[in-house]
Structure formats: C-alpha cells, structure tokens
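Thread amino acids onto this structure.
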C-alpha cells in the first residue's frame, strides 16, 4: 500500500500511516502485528541549561529546550516508523509519546503504538 492509498495527509514518499486514533476511517485492520516503539535519549548541553535557568527566573519560552525536544520527538517518530516498516506494517495505530527525565542527564522520548496492516474498507 502506498501513500496514494491513504489519500494524502502524510509526507511525500511515506509508506507508513501513523495516527493517534484506534482506527483509520475508510480502512479496516487486516492484521495486527503488535507493539512498536522508537526511543531516544538526548542530553542538554551546558549552554542551554544555563540559558534555561536564567529564562525560568524571568519567564518566557525556553527556545533551546523546545528545539531539542522537537528534534528528539522527530527522531523517536522516525525510529517508530522504521520499526513498523521492518515488521511489515503499513500503519501504526494509537501512537503516543512518553517523555521522562533520564537520570538527570537528559530527556527520554519514546514514541509507541500498534503496528498493523490496513486495507481499504
């Protein structure tokens, strides 16, 4: 199944649909493959930690940390999709993120969901 089969909504060339819902309208689950995840841990560099500490005293967005978290989230998603593809899935249902501190040295982001094979309903 290609991106054209999903009717758009994904990046060009994407072959794995990722949704946060329990199903994908217009499709039926043909086979459940199982849980898949993408995990990454990122440390914050000293400069962003100092900047975040100063910014937290005066308020406002912590742009350095926001940028790091976006990059980390994207990497976790890429790894999730890679794992789903490697297991033969063309979709991931019920995708979620879990974010935790990793031993006070960084941030762990895990993207997880259920890998499935979808077919047109």
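Threaded sequence (121 positions):
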């Amino acid at each position: 199944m290609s991106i054209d089969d999903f009717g758009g909504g994904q990046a060009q060339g994407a072959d794995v649909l990722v949704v946060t819902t329990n199903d994908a309208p217009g499709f039926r689950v043909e086979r459940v493959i199982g849980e898949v995840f993408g995990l990454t841990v990122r440390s914050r560099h000293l400069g962003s930690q100092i900047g975040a500490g100063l910014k937290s005293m005066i308020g406002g967005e912590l742009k350095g940390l926001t940028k790091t978290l976006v990059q980390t989230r994207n990497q976790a998603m890429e790894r999730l999709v890679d794992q789903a593809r490697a297991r033969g899935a063309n979709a991931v249902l019920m995708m979620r993120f879990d974010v935790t501190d990793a031993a006070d040295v960084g941030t762990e982001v895990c993207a997880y969901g259920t890998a499935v094979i979808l077919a047109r309903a």
